[in-house]
Amino acid sequence: MTSTEIREFIEGAIAENPVMLFMKGSPEQPACGFSARTAACLNALGVRYAALDVLPDPRIREELTGLSNWPTVPQLFVKGELVGGCDIVTEMYESGELAELLGAEQPEDAEDAATQSEAPVGNGRVPLENRLDQ
Amino acid sequence: MPTSAELKQKIEAALPGALVSVEDLTGGGDHFRAEVVSDRFEGLSRIQQHKLVYDVFGADVGGPIHALSIKTSTSGGTQ
Questions:
Q1: In this structure, are residues A77 and A23 in contact, taking their beta carbons and an 8 Å threshold?
Q2: Which of A25, A75, B7, B33 would be a feasible disulfide site paired with A30, CB 3.0-4.6 Å?
Q3: Which stretches of chain A score pLDDT less than 70?
Q4: What's the gap in Å between the CA of B16 and the closest CA on chain A?
């Protein structure tokens, strides 16, 4: 895959998936605490989302940060817009803004859920991790 | 290796009048947490506020600064 193809793939993933998370590792096996916490917020809200691991090829991260103008991973996109990384997503989760943005119900014990949740992950329509490796 | 004092100085220089505290989370000079209170954030979305802080460090974030956790607010309160 060329860098241009990777960039187009990322652009497509953001456009096609209303809730799109770029992370290190997978929601089931996050490879970084920040990615784990961000995925846990989405899991706790029970929303369906697509996730793409940036680790298999360094160019994924390069193209992503170039595209979003945001230096770190994870990055959460909702309806094509960058919402933020771990800090912003966690803050929005705790305040209930994330639930509102995603049209989900805010769990009663929101603070605990973000750190403890291991809810089953509702993957997006496209198993993105697999597609990019091929 | 960057230190929390250096990060604090750089943020203060870029955002005059800001109240800044920076913590080295691991003591290793690569994972930091910055709390920034500035009226420059007024009217900006969170993502724009955080970008103002990230922009201070350019490519250093994701490079020598492995992780920079940010919390921003205006003197009027957390936004």
A1: no
A2: A25
A3: 110-134
A4: 23
